[in-house]
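Worked example

This section walks through a single chain of length 282. The input is the sequence exactly as stored; nothing has been trimmed or padded.
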Amino acid sequence: METEVDIVEFKVPVENDKTLFIWNILPTFSEAYIYDRIFKHFSVFGALFSLRVRANASVAEPGFYAIVKFFSAAQACWAQEATDGRGLFQDKPLKVRLCTRQNPAFCQTVRCLSSAKCQELANYYLGFNGWSSRVVTLHDISITDNAGLLPLGTETQAVSLKYGCIVELMFTKHGVSCRGVGVAEELLENNPDPVERLLKRGKVQKYAKERAFCNAFQKVLLVVLGDGKVAVECRLDPDEIVPDEDLEGLIQVNDISWSEFAGVEEDEDLLYDLSLNMTDVP
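Given that input, the structure is written out below as tokens.
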């Protein structure tokens, strides 16, 4: 692999140069076996965001195809060049191509990684001891939303339970750090059961911390060199750097909707979002 610089961001990869399409997979093996073999061979080249194995359409020959998404474009290219035309786990050579075109609207949508995916990616490139995080503050901001009361109808009301959180990521070896803000909210019926309120409070606190954690990672860039070395850069907004005693005000200023975090645990590799130029395929 040639020495080059690649930038890895903590977001769902949708670029065509990070997506591999694999076909000519024989129907001899089970879908689970194929998944395991493809993951084993392709994860050698870099961190994988997702891997999907699907049966061919009924109009095609029996067999399977797979879609592999890398976080790094350089590593996806390396994997394509190294595996195309090789059998790997079967006698018949596989065909591996980078996807050449995707739906422009889909590519323009920036989707956040889940907290689990953020940790997985950071551990892959930096190691378990290469970074750390801490909760700077976790604050009840329910009182800021109409004194905690939201109308549900003409006769009933609900209590708005809302928490704001600030999480700091620290990359000590690289001398950088950054912070993220998260807000989560849950509605409770008026005069809820104490146990229900306690469980909902824990749930809201957890979501606020996870969203702050993901928001912090949105500011992190991993600079990956071809020789395997990794540098860390953080995109900082000077307006967000405040003393710890002023953090309560910061949360309230950043009290915004975090709906974009919903449903980002797994990426759905649907074929409508990508296509393959088959003109050069023998």
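What to look for: DSSP finds six helices and 13 strands in the chain.
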